[in-house]
Each structure stands twice: as structure tokens, then as C-alpha cells.
Amino acid sequence: MAKPGSNAHMVIRHKALECIGCCLCEETIPQYFQLDDDGMAQLLNSTQEGVFQRTTALRLDQAEIEEAVAGCPVDIIRLDNS
Q1: Which residues are CB-neighbours of 65 under 8 A, at least 6 positions away?
Q2: Is residue 6 very low, low, confident or very high in pLDDT (cuts 50, 70, 90)?
Q3: How far apart are CA 17 and CA 21, in angstroms?
Q4: What is the structure's pLDDT at 23?
Q5: What pTM did the predictor assign?
């Protein structure tokens, strides 16, 4: 497994409470997002960090994650290197 801060991983942050349920993130990167019973996106395998859900993502998925970040109509998804 890669060390924290390595080039193999990045961090996705998601403000789930502000989700409007457009489904774009789930359709773009279903390995990271799933809709809950209310139709709102939840970041899979995440921990709560303040107002954000947080999970580690593989750098090889970066292009698809960036597509979801750019396409989110309420701008609640972030992608960070650590």
C-alpha cells in the first residue's frame, strides 16, 4: 500500500449535506459515489471531516474525478493531493 502523501493517492472531499441529487458524480465515478435512499450522493468508504465526507482516491482515476468535480452543479466536490 502506498504511503500517505504518495503520488498513488489523492483525497476526495464532498459536502453531502449540500447535495441536490443530480446523480452526475455517481454516473461519472460510481466507484466513489452512491445515491442514498433519499437520492442524495454519498461518498463511499468515507469519514466525516468537518462539513466534508473524505476518502482516499486512486490517482489513476484522476481524469474521471476531475470531470465530476467540474460538472457538479452545486460545486461541493473537491480533489486534493493530500
Answers
A1: 10, 12, 29, 32, 57, 79
A2: low
A3: 11
A4: 96
A5: 0.87
